[in-house]
Amino acid sequence: MARKKIALIGSGMIGGTLAHIAAREELGDVVLFDIAEGLPQGKALDLAESTPVYNASVSLKGANDYADIKGADVCIVTAGVARKPGMSRDDLLGINLKVMKAVGEGLKANCPDAFVICITNPLDAMVWALQQFSGFKTNKVVGMAGVLDSSRFAYFLSEKTGVSVADIHAWTLAGHGDDMVPMVRHSTVGGLPLPELVKQGWMTQADLDGIVDRTRKGGGEIVALLKTGSAYYAPAESAISMAKAYLNDQKRVLPVAAWCQGEYGLDGMYVGVPAVLGAGGAEKVVEFDLNDAERAMFAKSVTSVQGLIAACKEIDGSLA
Ligand code: APR
């Protein structure tokens, strides 16, 4: 069987990290694409020169021409601009929407059967725009945000409780903004739901509230520290876990920006929900039971995403 082909659209901080992990894990041959000349070629060559050290039998290539991603099995999209301190993800909308148009057309012309994972922010609106511009089936286009937000949530819970991250299952739903919804009742440490941990004295309610708040603002915390850009290691690892679920038909339930038509009462939109990822892409949305408070938080976040989609439609009439 021929090797799989992984196309990385955007070869910046996340794109380069994705290429590194994809090569080390031998997911397939990697094409790094970017509009910047030399950047994808330089990163691809540097990474290719490292493969003899760890014996990875994959090729890495840099490209400025969409023809080079022809036939890709998986495309991970990070093209666009990242946040700087003082910016919200929504501030990126105007610039990144134009980028999604170019990327959508490039994917449509060259790899119409690919599974597409969008990382570019503002995530929920950009994954929607990418699906619209590419015309791909909604199950083959997803957004990466929930795996990252949930991983941050799990890490903070591990730090507080001293329990291994391996035994923590944390979930965040809804949009990838500061009004995301960390699912306190559905997340567990060693099988115990978080409210039970508070009852048993593992942490106070104030500790738990602090962790929820830090999770919501997790991206901004990294931006403030780095000063020149946004997070890239954890986003890259998160997208790779999604790519592996597709390539290996793992049927993993991961929180991703998936198309909801009826689920969670939504009438055709992308938002963060748990979904089964396998060879069919996003095969099924998993519906958590939400109580009134959770439903209200989810609705607030959905309203923000809908506002961003409306803004996209205003900027680009072809989306209306
Ligand atoms: N086509 C292809 N690549 C593009 C285009 C385009 N039209 N426009 C910009 N790029 C490239 C840039 O040249 C740059 O190399 O996208 C890359 C983005 O890389 P970084 O600026 O390093 O950003 P990164 O940290 O990788 O984040 C990318 O993911 O998490 C989100 O908010 C983040 O939207 C941002 C994206």
Automatic annotation (TrEMBL):
- Check the record and name the SUPFAM superfamilies matching this protein: LDH C-terminal domain-like (SSF56327), NAD(P)-binding Rossmann-fold domains (SSF51735)
Name the Gene Ontology biological process terms.
lactate metabolic process; tricarboxylic acid cycle
Question: Is rRNA processing a UniProt keyword of this protein?
Answer: no
Q: Which residues bind NAD(+)?
A: G10, S11, G12, M13, I14, G15, D34, N96, I119, T120, N121
Q: Where is the Lactate/malate dehydrogenase C-terminal domain?
A: 148-305
- What are the protein's UniProt keywords? NAD, Oxidoreductase, Tricarboxylic acid cycle
Stretch forming the signal peptide: none
Q: Which domain of life is it from?
A: Bacteria
Q: Which reaction does it catalyse?
A: (S)-malate + NAD(+) = oxaloacetate + NADH + H(+)
* Catalytic residue positions: H176
The Lactate/malate dehydrogenase N-terminal domain sits at: 5-143
InterPro entries, per this entry?
A: L-lactate/malate_DH (IPR001557), Lactate/malate_DH_C (IPR022383), Lactate/malate_DH_N (IPR001236), Lactate_DH/Glyco_Ohase_4_C (IPR015955), Malate_DH_type3 (IPR011275), NAD(P)-bd_dom_sf (IPR036291)
What Gene Ontology molecular function terms does this protein carry? L-lactate dehydrogenase (NAD+) activity; L-malate dehydrogenase (NAD+) activity
| EC number(s) from the headed UniProt entry | 1.1.1.37
Residue sites binding substrate per the record: R83, R89, N121, R152
Please give the function described in this protein's UniProt entry: Catalyzes the reversible oxidation of malate to oxaloacetate.
| PANTHER family per the UniProt record, alphabetical | L-2-HYDROXYCARBOXYLATE DEHYDROGENASE (NAD(P)(+)), L-LACTATE DEHYDROGENASE
Which protein is depicted?
Malate dehydrogenase
